[in-house]
Design goal:
It is a single chain. By secondary structure, the protein is an alpha+beta fold. The chain contains seven helices and six strands. The chain folds into two domains: 82 residues, Arc Repressor Mutant, subunit A; 77 residues, no CATH class. Helices cover 57% and strands 15% of the residues. It has a three-stranded antiparallel sheet. The chain has a three-stranded antiparallel sheet with strand order 5-4-6. Strand 2 and strand 3 form a beta hairpin. The chain starts with a helix and ends in a 5-residue tail after the last helix. Bound molecules: zinc ion (ZN). Zinc ion (ZN) binds next to loops. The site of zinc ion has 8 residues, from loops.
């Protein structure tokens, strides 16, 4: 097994768990396989196999070719492990995570929040105004919510992720 492929198998387990890794290893040893072959090999439902394969594909860990089965008229998918460099995949994941965290941080910074202390439901300022500062669930008066700690946690996570180098 090449180092790249080992990293990809490792990564699949980190994201999706042991079964995903086993599927990756099966595809590595076979070269390529269909949904049905994966399902049969692991003794699982075809839909379950497809879900694992699609999840891995969405994370760019797999690619496929498809061929039309002339008898049944459907497409058959042949899955194989990507030949992309894991560093490229990891970098894309890091950027995506950073974008999500930054968006969340911006939202926390731009809004003032209120909370119902009874049911812990959180409201933005606008929502609180719309409901006359009363909880829509229980009618309790809303209290201002200090989100400084949330902002701090987000900032820490962003700074860690900015420095993150998976190959150190
Ligand atoms: Zn409430």
């Amino acid at each position: 097994m090449s180092l790249n492929v080992q990293v990809l198998a490792e990564l699949s387990e980190k994201i999706f768990g042991k079964r995903a890794r086993q599927v990756m290893e099966f595809l590595i040893s076979r070269g390529e396989a269909t949904d049905e072959q994966v399902a049969n090999f692991f003794g699982i439902d075809v839909n379950e196999a497809r879900k694992i394969l699609n999840d891995l594909f969405e994370q760019r860990l797999l690619r496929y070719r498809r061929a039309r089965d002339e008898k049944i008229g459907w497409y058959i998918y042949f899955w194989r492990v990507t030949d992309e460099n894991p560093a490229v995949i990891l970098e894309a994941r890091r950027k995506k995570a950073l974008a999500i965290l930054r968006q969340r941080l911006e939202y926390e910074r731009d809004n003032t929040f209120y909370v119902c202390l009874k049911c812990e439901k959180k409201y933005t300022f606008d929502e609180a105004v719309d409901n006359s500062f009363r909880c829509i669930e229980c009618g309790e008066l809303l209290e201002p919510l200090d989100n400084a700690r949330v902002i701090e946690i987000l900032e820490e996570a962003i700074s860690k992720l900015k420095q993150y180098n998976p190959f150190e």
